[in-house]
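Example 3.2
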Amino acid sequence: MEEMTATSQQLSKAHAMTRVHSTTWYDPIKSMPPRLNEACTGTYLMLRAIDEIEDHPTLPAADRATLLRQISVALQTQRDASHFDTIMGDNYGNLPDVTRDLPQWAALIPRDVAPRVCEAIAAMADRMAEWVLKEFRIHSRDDLDCYTYAVGSATVLIFCDLWSWYDGAPSDRSHGIAFGRYLQAVNMLVDREEDAEHGVDFLPAGWKVRQMIEYAHDQEAGAVAYINTLSPGPARDFFTGPLLRAQKALRSVEALVLRPPEQNAAP
């Protein structure tokens, strides 16, 4: 009974943290059945924890890359919570709570699937470190595909594993890759001005915003197909909302960018 209470307290804390960082994911996660709830909540917060390092506004790139790689090693070697405090070191006070509490989120995930989640997030942290050191410079369509896979598609594939683990629910992973790329591409378009303030431009060299919109549309059919492969239930509920919001956001960006120039009034 004491262990169940502790788990309930951990889950409540995790739900509260999820709500702080994302109204998009909070409702579908909180409504999930037991075990899948813990798995998805812990996974989402671990992803958020490393994302906050990747995008930290004041830590030098070298420090962010080093921390991401140390977290990757710690996850691969199954180190205890105190080790995470050690590797955060002097940066501990500069990191958000969701990052400092990463070991708690990992502990929330059921033991029979936690190693798979940790392995995937360790790989993602390594890829993030590489992009931090590259200053997110994207030179070509291939670079763009690599980045949207590293942070978008890889996230969706983790959740594909969770659906399969929980009840054997099938999902098309190839379409899942497109789904992740689609969400990431739309985020890049929506956040472009904010990213520019930090000196980051995710458009490949020589691209205009119109080409990035076309790139997002290239992924959209696969994204919709991915949702259609999911049976009604938690998995479909989890991703349907983000798809609809991304489609709405893309239409808004497209309307703004592709709007015909206003004609000058006749004198």
